Amino acid sequence: MTVLITGASSGIGESLAVKYAMEGHPLIITARNKDRLDVLASTLIKRYGVAVTAIESDLSSKGSALKLFNKITQSGLTVEVLINNAGVGLFGEFHKTDMEKEEAMIQLNITSLTELTKLFGREMVKKGEGKVLNIASTAAFFPGPLMSVYYASKAYVKSFSHALSNEWREHGVQVSVLCPGPTGTGFKDAAELGDSKLFQKGIMSVEAVTEHAYKEFTEGKEEIIPGAMNRIQTRFGKFISSKKAASIVRKTQERV
Ligand SMILES: NC(=O)c1ccc[n+]([C@@H]2O[C@H](COP(=O)([O-])OP(=O)(O)OC[C@H]3O[C@@H](n4cnc5c(N)ncnc54)[C@H](OP(=O)(O)O)[C@@H]3O)[C@@H](O)[C@H]2O)c1
């Protein structure tokens, strides 16, 4: 069962790659940083004896998902498990943040994820088997002042994943969505969250998120939320208005 993981050069993607290699699965790992991918690939090959193909891909550029799909299929590889993990955030008031960064985020978090799901998912539906894990966030449950585009992008990922899970179940394809809360990875720095209160407490380790995600995805669970506090917060969110939720979220991630 070959597993394709996007954004495997660090954080949750890298950790999932290690977990799948430990379990004996061949891997295709992608990200922009080819040096990091190559180091990870040779470590996993040496340590676990699995086949690992590393492919450089910037999924924030238009057409990149199709290019990646063509590269993989032309090299004769088939993907049985697709993990759409690559994603970025951006902190700041919307009228001040950089539009180019937000366009790149939408291309990465939404467009490429959608295109990869269509391209690989179509093949899975044809075969009548396969699995897709899309990485959203607890952010998917709320409006997110000071990270408005990121929260909205993750709400898209969650809604899209539940809809596809419903459509593809009858075709033998599992679609799940992983919604982690704050996790100790490179995300905080990449999202320019240095001044925010968000990562000051309640941070889960990347290993704990990975173990939880791997177990529940393997069991076929549709919505996976690692961490008891994250599960409580997202459930609570269903009982308050969007206006109230936005005001609470703003308080949790204001500048210190
Ligand atoms: N950490 C958290 O608190 C948290 C919470 C909820 C959800 N998430 C989600 O979890 C996922 C993984 O994030 P992480 O926490 O593991 O952060 P991370 O350590 O920053 O990892 C992000 C990964 O995405 C890749 N990536 C970034 N831009 C890319 C691009 N343009 N094209 C292709 N790959 C790109 C990065 O590799 P390169 O830089 O080499 O391209 C890296 O491998 C994201 O979808 C994020 O939104 C994270």
Automatic annotation (TrEMBL):
Which keywords does this Swiss-Prot/TrEMBL entry list?
Answer: Oxidoreductase
Molecular-function GO terms, alphabetical: oxidoreductase activity
Which family, according to UniProt?
Belongs to the short-chain dehydrogenases/reductases (SDR) family.
Protein's name according to its UniProt entry: Short-chain dehydrogenase
| Transmembrane annotation, as ranges | none
Q: Which InterPro entries match?
A: NAD(P)-bd_dom_sf (IPR036291), SDR_fam (IPR002347)
Instruction: Report whether Hydrolase shows up as a keyword of the record.
Output: no
